[in-house]
Amino acid sequence: MIIQLSGHHLTKKFKQQTILSDVNLSLASGEIYGLLGPSGSGKTTLVKILLGLEKCDQGKVELFNQKPSISSFRHLGYMAQSDALYEELTAYENLDFFGSIQGLRKKERKQRIEEVAEIVHLRNDLSKKVLQYSGGMKRRLSLACALIHKPKLYLLDEPTVGLDPLLRQSIWKLFQKLKEDEATLIVTTHVMDEVNRCDRVGLLKDGKILATGSPADLLKTYQVDSIEDIFLKGVSH
Ligand SMILES: Nc1ncnc2c1ncn2[C@@H]1O[C@H](COP(=O)(O)OP(=O)(O)OP(=O)(O)O)[C@@H](O)[C@H]1O
Predict the structure, then answer these.
(1) Could you report the per-residue pLDDT of 46-71, keeping only the tens digit for each?
(2) 81: in domain
(3) Helix (H) or strand (E) holding 162
(4) Is 37 in the pocket of ligand 1 (CB under 6 A)?
(5) Which segments of 102-164 does DSSP mark as H helices, in order?
């Protein structure tokens, strides 16, 4: 098993408030890890720390078994919770921009833009400015931007928010396909039915990982009918 990303004893405070407390997690190559937790439990903060966008007060992160470096970031695909897109540019220009900062050459960018636009069903809308896009279209474009350079590791913060069930299903099919190609994904979600599509789930509550395991193992261990019940039971870690 090759560990692609790990966080060790991660602790984070904002002023006096402890946001993350001694969080440990590791992601193996070819797995989908779901990070599930109520609003405000620290999911986005954790993803940002893993990505190097936020500093932790204690603990360390390892990317591809090394201290994170500029070269390791080339292999990351990040989709932020709020879309980080250039509204005045067209979707094509956004993808072209993100492709170029990832070092793709012009010809390769052109080809990849076609491919990722097809994947997220935006091929016919590439020439529209992003400000003309709906919320769901922006989410899909953000995902396409994260895919453009074929990273090995994806950190996706609520990638399916605002998408209709059909599109959500096709996005999850894509995640499965990425996984089959040995990519590793960490996906934050509030949606319980998405949890069952993950290989492993980490349940985050008040900045602590309450439990980690496959959805089936968690149900068995905690003798519950749904993962949601683990939160409701108030299991302490
Ligand atoms: N830059 C910041 N300064 C101060 N507090 C912050 C900052 N960023 C996050 N927080 C606080 O940290 C806590 C966790 O926030 P975070 O966004 O990580 O939660 P989350 O689980 O992703 O929530 P949601 O599901 O609603 O997106 C919240 O109480 C939030 O107010």
Answers:
(1) 999 999 889 999 999 999 888 888 78
(2) no
(3) none
(4) yes
(5) 106-119, 135-147
